[in-house]
Amino acid sequence: MKRARLFGGFVIVAILIVSWVVSSRIFPPSYGAFVGQNQDCYSKIADACDELRARMPSSLTNGSKLRPDVAALPAALSTFRPAFLRVSTNRVVISVGVGRDGYGIIWEREGPQSWVLKASGEEGGSQPLYIRENQWSTILTNR
Asked: How many domains does the chain have?
């Protein structure tokens, strides 16, 4: 009897762990989880967006809506499992999720030598998270 309970408890814990691992690989990070990241994470995402812009053929950098399988996404971007993306010479937009829970990640030029990483989602506007000027970053506090 005691062994049966112990085994049953082990099975329940194993199921919970497997469910957590599977769901973390299937579903993208939530908006709240994304805007709560640190500056190092945002820097890597900005680098990945720059890499994506550099690798895209010029015929696809006109801002058209692209399926994520059209471009080989850098690892830092593929973790978001984008629904679609738009790439242009001055902007990368990554659409994460759909509907009410969906949000956007935007990396765009905001001046001659300034780039800003923003999140667009729950509030309806966009929230700047990271700024890079002349290859140096300016840290923004999370609001």
From this structure: 1
